[in-house]
Amino acid sequence: MNKPEILIIDDEPQIRKLLQIALESNDMRVRQASTGTEGLHMATAHTPDLILLDIGLPDHSGHEVLRQLRQWCSRPIVMLSVQDGEQDIVQALDNGATDYLSKPFRTGELLARIRSCLRRGEVGTTDAIFTFGDLQMDLEAHTVKRAGAVIKLTSTEYNLLSLFVRNEGKVLTHRHILREVWGIGYQTETQYLRVFVAQLRKKLEQDPTRPKHIITESGVGYRFC
């Protein structure tokens, strides 16, 4: 199997070195760029399997680099942001970023996020049956079961769960979820989302107060695991 190639676009040499060591020690190939312009050139010349893109770059903002990449690149793009960059994270995810990591990050989390993104890139979009724990969702039959027993969901609950399952491991922003499930006119109605997430957790989670599947990403949205 070929080693996945990761392109790092970050202006901090110590961050690039840390990432290079972590990735190469886990059987990945690494290319580095210190500016947005250099990163765009490298991504065009050597299409990577995944891009780690810092939001704060010296020549172009990470958002602008993301916008240009998404004009032609469908590969996973993980944004790197400082801890207090919540609005930056939301904007990046809404504009097509696959995931994000807040600095400083743990190596284990970094590798887990990268592996998850690479797996999603390999899985076809025609899969109809998803299994998570003792739960199973069949998108063709429109059923959700636990240990073979059907769980009754409303149409909205089903549509919400379907969106989560089809984006397993990916952070979905409040705005994105509301637009996809309720429509463009509901993108700010976060109370709808809180109510329906709570209802889903009651029906799906063993302990709704400590969810293992529908995970809250504080201030950003939700991640389905």
Describe this structure in words.
This protein is an alpha/beta fold. It has 2 domains: 5-122, Rossmann fold (3-Layer(aba) Sandwich), CATH 3.40.50.2300; 129-224, Arc Repressor Mutant, subunit A (Orthogonal Bundle), CATH 1.10.10.10. It is 40% helix and 23% strand. The protein is built from 8 helices and 12 strands. The chain has helices spanning 13-24, 36-45, 62-69, 86-94, 107-122, 155-166, 174-181, 190-204, and strands at 5-9, 29-33, 50-54, 77-82, 99-103, 129-132, 135-138, 143-146, 149-150, 171-173, 214-217, 221-224. A 5-stranded parallel β-sheet has the order 2-1-3-4-5, sandwiched between helices. Strands 6-7-8-9 form a 4-stranded antiparallel β-sheet, covered by helices on one side. Strand 7 and strand 8 form a beta hairpin. Helix 6 (155-166) packs across helix 8.
- DSSP strand (E) fraction? 15-25%
Provide the helix percentage: 40-55%
**Average pLDDT:** 89
User: Strand tally, please?
Assistant: 12
Strand order of the largest sheet: 2-1-3-4-5
Q: Structurally, how many domains make up the residues?
A: 2
Low-confidence spans? none
Question: Based on helices, strands and strand pairing, what is the structural class?
Answer: alpha/beta
Main β-sheet, in a few words?
A: 5 strands, parallel
C-alpha end-to-end distance: 26 Å
CATH domain class name of the largest domain: Alpha Beta
CATH fold category name of the largest domain: Rossmann fold
Question: Based on CA inertia axes, which overall geometry fits?
Answer: globular
